Amino acid sequence: xxxxxxxxxxxxxxxxxxxxxxxxxxxxxxxxxxxxxxxxxxxxxxxxxxxxxxxxxxxxxxxxxxxxxxxxxxxxxxxxxxxxxxxxxxxxxxxxxxxxxxxxxxxxxxxxxxxxxxxxxxxxxxxxxxxxxxxxxxxxxxxxxxxxxxxxxxxxxxxxxxxxxxxxxxxxxxxxxxxxxxxxxxxxxxxxxxxxxxxxxxxxxxxxxxxxxxxxxxxxxxxxxxxxxxxxxxxxxxxx
Length: 240
Ligand code: CAA
Fold this sequence. Notes:
The protein has 240 residues and is α/β, with parallel strands linked by helices. Helix content is 49%, strand content 16%.
């Protein structure tokens, strides 16, 4: 069915693949991005997917974008909160700014997009929200108190909002990826990454496609009985 979906951080990495697979599933997809114009324009040209530039961590920018997308395409009833950044450092080296930027972008963005679309979903009596958490929000990770706190927050946010959405036909679920072959993971020092991969039972990094398949499943019309759940897609690295 042709519903309007927004994917934050949807022009690169895991988000780009989620955008592609949602489009292939018949959705009208708008992919947001924060900064990289060239990558976004290339992505849009190559896929035919609409792109919108705004900072998902900034409420006012999100409000303007949601208004524009609704006017251009119709009510947004599928939201994939995928936008995420890392600012890794041990606590002793982490600055307040590294904390704030990760909390605002990774967790604040979930509040922003859900807050701005939830009422519309209630009116439509249909909604599919998928929040991208992380294995590192489930298990913690050395050097990531900011990221682990934000992603862990996403898992709590998901379970709370699922309870509010249930009687309006709105499902709210999380996908918790493990280490996936993207620019974000490639930025981890090679020796550290090698040790991490050695602990993945499946024996490889995940692919963006592995994660996107889970998102498509959770956003399907037929997935109406799945809510408040976390789908871990991590090659067996953390069984939770
Ligand atoms: N457990 C215990 N000790 C550890 C450790 C670990 N996991 N990792 C490092 N240490 C130790 C080191 O051995 C070192 O000890 P010595 O001083 O005794 O040698 C000490 O901690 C300092 O380590 P570093 O030299 O690495 O410290 P640093 O300040 O240069 O770097 C870091 C710290 C930035 C956290 C770096 O280790 C790092 O980048 N780690 C990877 C973090 C990571 O996995 N990020 C995931 C990004 S991808 C993502 O987040 C996507 C997703 O959702 C999965």
